[in-house]
Each structure stands twice: as C-alpha cells, then as structure tokens.
Specification:
This protein is 33% helix and 22% strand. By secondary structure, it is an alpha+beta fold. It has 3 domains: 191 residues, Histidine kinase-like ATPase, C-terminal domain (Heat Shock Protein 90); 126 residues, 2-Layer Sandwich (Ribosomal Protein S5, domain 2); 220 residues, MutL, C-terminal domain, dimerisation subdomain (formyl-coa transferase, domain 3, 2-Layer Sandwich), CATH 3.30.1540. The strands form 5 sheets. The chain has an 8-stranded mixed beta sheet, with helices on one face. It has a 6-stranded mixed beta sheet with strand order 12-11-13-10-9-16. It has a 4-stranded antiparallel beta sheet with strand order 17-18-19-23. Helix 10 runs parallel beside helix 11 and helix 13 packs across helix 17.
Length: 601
C-alpha cells in the first residue's frame, strides 16, 4: 500500500535544505561571512573550537538586524536582499536566498545577537528541534554575532562524515582566505581553540594589498606575480597572475571572483588554460588571483545550491576576453619587465616592509613590436642569429674599457660560455645566466608561430577519406560548427545519421592520428561552444620543431652569436621561459654575489 502525500514539517524541510547548503563547518563560515559582508562589515572576528564542530562564533561590525526582524531572520526564505523576480536578474549581494540561518539552526544550537545603530542589543536562540524562538535583550555593540554550537548534534549520521579537527579547520581557513583575497578593506581575525591563528589587516594602499596577497598566497607567489588590468565593453579584469615559471603541480593556487563572489567556472578555467597552453608543461597548473567585473544582468549566480558556479549569458565573449587579456600579459613579458627566478631568495625577515608592489601591466591598444632584422630557419646549420646592427653596437662597446650604462641592454653582453650549455653575461645589475638551448628554442618557436599564422592553414586532401562513427548528437555538432572546422583546415561531411567523412586535414597533421583529435574537438564544442584542441596540437608540433632545431648543448658559440641570441630574447614574446615553462635566464645581482662571498662583513 502506497503512502499518502503529505506536507513535510518545517523542521524536516529545513534539514533537507541544510543538506544542500551545510556540508561541513566551513560551509557555515562561508554563509555567515557573506551575510556579514552584505551588511557592510569592515571588521569580522572568528572564534572556532574543535575545527568548528564544538563552536563557531562570527562577530561583525555591520549594520545589524532590527530587533523586530531577529526571529524572522531564522525562517526559511526570509531575506532583506531581494524582493521580487526582477531583483534576481541583477544580484549584487553575496547572499540572497534567505536559507542560511534557518538551515544552520536546524542542525545546531544557534544564538543570534544583534544591534542596530543607536539601539540596544537583542538576541534569539534556537536549538535544533525547537519550533519557536524567544527574543531577549542582550548587551551588544552595533553589528551581529552568530554563535553555532554542537554542529549536527541532532543528526549524528551527518556528524560521522566530518573529518579530523585539523582537516575541518583547514577548510575553514581556506574559506576565510578566499574571502580575504577579495575584500581588502575588511579586517579579519581568526582564533582556533582560543589561539590567534590568522589576522588579515585591512589593506588600502597597493603595498598593503601586496602584503595581504603575500600572507594569503605565500611570498613566492607575490614575488612572481604580474598585475593585470584589462577592460572591454561591459567587462573589467584585474588582479595578479604568476609568471609561467612559477607553476603548480595542482590547481591549488587559483582564485577567481565574479563581482566579488568566489566561483569555479568551466568557461574561466578553459580560458586560463588556453592562455598558458604554450608556455607551461601540460601537467602543470598556473597560479592566479583574478577579479572579473561584469554587468549583473549578464551573469546568473542562482545556478548552484552553494553558489559556487555561475552562468554567463555571453560565455564566448567572456572566454575570449579573459584568454586574450592573459595572453597579452604573458606575451609582453620581456627581460627587464619581469623578475626572473634568482639563485638566492630573500627570507621574510630580510624583506623590507612594506613589500614592494608587484609589476603592473595595463592592457591598452596593441602596439607594433619591433621585428628585428634576423631570420631563423629550423635546421642545425651555423647558428642563424647574426644581426649586423647589433654587432656594430657590440663592437663599439668593446672598444671601450667599460660598457656605458646608458646604452646597456637588459640582458647585458656576453662574457663567456659555460660547459657549452650556459651563456654568462654582464648587465648593469650584475650577472645574467642564460640556458642557450631553452632561449633559442623559444625564439625559434615564436618565429615559427608567426610564420605559420601569416601563411594561414594549408589543407591537405586525403586520398582516401577517413570515416568515423559518432553519436547522432556528435554528428549534429559537426554540422552545426562546420564553419569552425573549415576555418581550421578540416573539411568534414556527414555520411549518415551517425557517421562522418574527413576529406581534408591541415598539412601539418597529415601524418598524425586525427581520430582522437576530432572527438576531443567535438566534446569541447558541445561543452564550451569552441575548441582549442587543433590549435594546441599544431603549436605542439611547432614546439617540437623548434626544440629539435635549437642549438644543442656543447655547441661552441662565438661572442657575437651569444650577443645576438641575447638581443633576440629581448624582442621575443615569452622569452622568460621555454616552450615547456622552464626559465630561460636568471639574474644574480651584485648584492646577491656579495652575499655569496661575504663581502662587506
């Protein structure tokens, strides 16, 4: 016999909602943090005990909650942030559903205390199963305090899924760090088991922001960060990206914000990966802290229970804007504009406070880059890096006893070659070390890319068309994006409901296995409405050609040839790293050399 339909009690409904919103103690921190920031708080304090399982107390200096609204605030779908359907189209607050407090109260012992300006404080308490809450006066300054005790005390099955105290606190620490990286004007204080663990002081100046960046992401990230500022119609992207030589084995240092909300989005991830694809190993991950500002009506934040994901109305536009902006920053890194990795890193105690701001990059109209009057061909004949104009300068400089600093180049001038592998050069800062193979590989690769782009894709007809069996959805995708495939040198026709015929392929891929490439491209088009697989495959081939054509170890170079390579690096995109993301050069300053030899002590 089937059960009759009946309405769930408020308690059961709240616990179901809590299962979507409250996964662990860090989920509570996130929800309460959003409420505090929406209330305009500039100071937020956290008191945590036993990883949040025993106590979570969040105290803020926000506008507070009116006494008449305290009990109502614990009800489901009670909020001051939206009122009608139109408000959902342009959400600017972090919270808006009115579910957090009700969900938290249903699985804990919760006390809510608050006071608005020029009024005394009041508080209300709810203990899980209670159906009503009593309002009581309480001494409280302006702002709000939410105290959550004994999380999941009435749902022991959920409590069993919690991890160790340290693990749960680490999740809490990460949530607070993510928010602190976005809201620089707010002071955050974190205590665990009555011990001060973290304090992010309010940051207003650029130096203070870099200090917070260093505190949250680590000193190495701040040392290798480039500031980006890019704008387009209705879009603004700013923040910091790490140079390709500072890569990670995991995507654990990637923070992206949309209108102040931390999100993980497939469109964004795809755009960033493509921007870095030819300057980093495929199994490495870039590091970044980026902020996207966009018209709220162009982004839907109401697509995930925990609000971790968003949906862009013009996802292709956003993708291309992010990718293009990052590519221009990475391409414009030149010797002297970026700080290469050094052999000696200053410790935190040796740093001057405040930390110097990282290098800035403001995207503007694209300027014509000097092309240089040299040409590199992909073969291992005598090193084709002779530039007569540079050699005249070099010869003039070496007729003097000293190199005049006012005309010295960023990478300096060659002194010698070490073990047939490294070039030793002197510049105004000290000693420059260059990996000649990696540097020449990058120069060749960028020239091959430019040559390939200028000539466009040349298609090669297949003597026998390649037939592929696909699903009907995949074949429909091929037809829908036929112009995309044709622009990439792929001529594909539909054979039947579930098969296609590939009749032409790019000449560079005529010997390659095209089947998996086509399948991956179709999957990308279905998921992202675009694909960079073919571009990446061709760039991989060009990179291999550059690697095999670059000057090899033990190759003896003349001083003019070494100087020609240095001048080429100064004019080449991405010259700070090879095609695989390894550094091509590093600087040892005079101060670092003096420290090595204990000079001045």
């Amino acid at each position: 016999m089937t059960s009759r339909i009946q309405k769930l009690t408020p308690l059961v409904a709240n616990q179901i909602a809590a299962g979507e919103v409250i996964e662990r103690p860090s989920s509570i921190i996130k929800e309460l943090l959003e409420n505090s920031l929406d209330a305009g708080a500039t100071k937020i304090e956290f008191d945590i005990e036993q990883g949040g399982m025993r106590l979570i107390r969040v105290r803020d200096s926000g506008s507070g909650i009116h006494p008449d609204d305290l009990v109502l605030a614990l009800s489901r779908h009670a909020t001051s942030k939206i009122q009608n359907m139109d408000d959902l189209e342009k959400i600017m607050t972090l919270g808006f559903r009115g579910e957090a407090l009700a969900s938290i109260a249903s699985v804990s012992r919760l006390t809510l205390s608050s006071a608005v300006e020029s009024q005394s404080g009041w508080q209300v308490s709810v203990h899980g199963n209670e159906q009503s809450a009593q309002l009581e006066p309480a001494a409280h300054p302006q702002g709000t305090t939410v105290e959550v005790r004994d999380l999941f005390f009435n749902t022991p099955a959920r409590r069993k899924f919690l991890r160790t105290e340290k693990t749960e606190f680490d999740h809490i620490d990460e949530v607070i760090k993510r928010v602190a990286l976005c809201h620089f004007h707010v002071n955050f204080t974190v205590k665990h088991n009555e011990k001060l663990i973290r304090q992010y002081r309010a940051a207003t100046s650029e130096a203070e922001k870099i200090q917070r960046l260093s505190d949250a992401c680590g000193v190495p990230f701040a040392d290798n960060a480039l500031k980006i500022e890019a704008q387009a119609t209705g879009l603004r992207l700013w923040g910091w990206i790490a140079s390709p030589t500072f890569s990670r084995s995991q995507p654990d240092l990637q923070y992206f914000y949309v209108n102040g909300r931390t999100v993980k989005d497939k469109v964004v991830s795809h755009a960033v990966r493509h921007a870095y694809h030819d300057v980093m190993y495929q199994d490495r991950h870039p590091a970044f802290v980026l902020f996207l500002e966009i018209d709220p009506s162009q982004v839907d934040v109401n697509v995930h229970p925990a609000k971790h994901e968003v949906r862009f109305r013009e996802s292709r536009l956003v993708h291309d804007f992010i990718c293009r902006s990052l590519q221009e920053v990475l391409a414009d890194i030149r010797p002297g504009q970026s700080v290469p990795p050094t052999a000696i890193s200053a410790t935190q105690s040796e740093r001057q406070q405040p930390i110097e701001p990282v290098r800035e990059y403001t995207r503007g109209p694209t300027s014509q880059k000097p092309s240089g009057n040299y040409h590199v061909t992909p073969r291992q004949t005598p090193l084709p890096l002779k530039m007569q104009e540079q050699m005249v300068v070099y010869n003039q400089l070496h007729t003097e006893q000293e190199v005049p600093k006012e005309i010295a180049c960023e990478l300096g001038y060659a002194l010698a070659q070490l073990q047939g592998i490294y070039i030793l050069a002197e510049n105004t800062n000290g000693l420059v070390l260059v990996d000649m193979h990696a540097a020449h590989e990058r120069v060749l690769y960028e020239q091959l890319k430019k040559s390939f782009q200028d000539q466009a894709l040349i298609s090669q007809p297949l003597l026998v068309p390649l037939t592929m069996q696909l699903s009907e959805r995949e074949v429909n995708c091929v037809e829908q994006y036929a112009n995309v495939f044709e622009s990439l040198g792929l001529k594909i026709t539909r054979m039947s409901q579930d098969s296609i015929a590939i009749r032409e392929v790019p000449e560079l891929l005529r010997e390659g296995n095209i089947d998996p490439l086509i399948r991956d491209m179709i999957a990308d088009l279905i998921e992202h409405e675009q694909s960079v697989r073919l571009d990446e495959r061709i760039h991989h081939i060009l990179g291999t050609m550059a690697c095999h054509s670059a000057v090899r170890s033990q190759r003896k170079l003349t001083v003019p040839e070494m100087n020609a390579l240095l001048r080429a690096m100064e004019k080449t995109d991405h010259s700070g790293q090879c095609n695989h993301g390894r550094p091509t050069w590093m600087q040892l300053s005079m101060q670092e050399l003096d420290k090595l030899f204990l000079r001045g002590r």
